[in-house]
Design brief:
Layout lengths: L3 E8 L2 E8 L6 E4 L14 H4 L4 E5 L19 H14 L5 E5 L3 H11 L4 E6 L11 H12 L3 H8 L4 H9 L11 H10 L4 H11 L9 H8 L9
Parallel strand pairs: 3-4, 3-5, 5-6
Antiparallel strand pairs: 1-2, 2-4
Helix pairs in contact: 2-3, 4-5, 6-7
Organism: Nonomuraea fuscirosea
Pfam family, one: Abhydrolase_1
Protein name: Pimeloyl-ACP methyl ester carboxylesterase
Length: 234
């Protein structure tokens, strides 16, 4: 089975961690992780794929082993994550690739495809929302309320998404036999989520998250315009 290399690259002044495996001249597959995890989620998927592909799995800025600049010094948005991911691929000399997009990987993957559609050989989506019907109000309302207006009440409601129990839920929900899921994964994710200042990074991404047009309100537009100090946007 192919060896997996664990590397860093500096992109726009930020140190990004990525996993890479497979022949350098093979077709490229880029694996973009979701919330609340990192490229760690692909540790068992990369080796079998690497028999046929050059596999690249980065940790998004603020996640995993990549840099996590403070939220008051960097504008943590999906646009910024897209620019950094595109910059990493440029740094690695990748010009054509397939992209796998679950969860948070999706808004980055869609941006990559829209910015340079000729570079994309395939899109593999799993829980990568790109359609209005995928926004189930009973699931997303807490985040939408926080996007509309940031108060102690709305912040406390979304803070639950950063808890150990919710991180565990991401792995075991709907799994018939939970004993088949190693707790290493959610404890690893939770340890990185719990780093000082990381909650502010996640709140910034919650505020920036996609929602259906009909769910956009004047309150959310006003809140967006009223954001504070100028920060780096990568």
């Amino acid at each position: 089975m192919a060896s997996v290399h664990h590397r860093y690259a500096t992109v726009r002044g930020h140190r990004l961690f990525y996993r890479e495996a497979g022949p350098a001249d093979a077709p490229v597959v880029v694996l973009l992780h979701g919330f609340p995890t990192s490229s760690f989620m692909f540790r068992d998927l990369i080796p079998p794929l690497a028999g046929q592909y050059r596999v690249i799995a980065p940790d998004l800025l603020g996640f995993g082993l990549s840099d996590a600049p403070p939220a008051d010094a960097f504008d943590h948005t999906f646009d910024a994550l897209h620019r950094l991911t595109a910059g990493l691929l440029d740094e690695l000399g990748v010009t054509r690739y397939a992209v796998y997009v679950p969860d948070y990987g999706a808004p980055i993957g869609w941006r990559l495809a829209l910015a340079d559609p000729r570079a994309i050989t395939a899109i593999i989506t799993q829980n990568g929302n790109g359609y209005e019907a995928g926004f189930v109000e009973s699931f997303w309302k807490t985040v939408w309320d926080y996007q509309d207006v940031q108060t102690p009440r709305t912040e406390e409601a979304v803070r639950g998404a950063l808890s150990l129990e919710t991180t565990r839920w991401q792995y075991v929900t709907s799994v018939p036999d939970e004993t088949l899921v190693s707790p290493d994964a959610w404890h690893h994710d939770y340890a990185l989520l719990s780093r000082p200042g990381n909650d502010a990074i996640q709140f910034a991404l919650f505020r920036d998250g996609t929602r259906p047009p009909r769910q956009r309100t004047s309150a959310s537009c006003t809140a967006t315009k009223a954001t504070g100090t100028r920060r780096s946007t990568a």
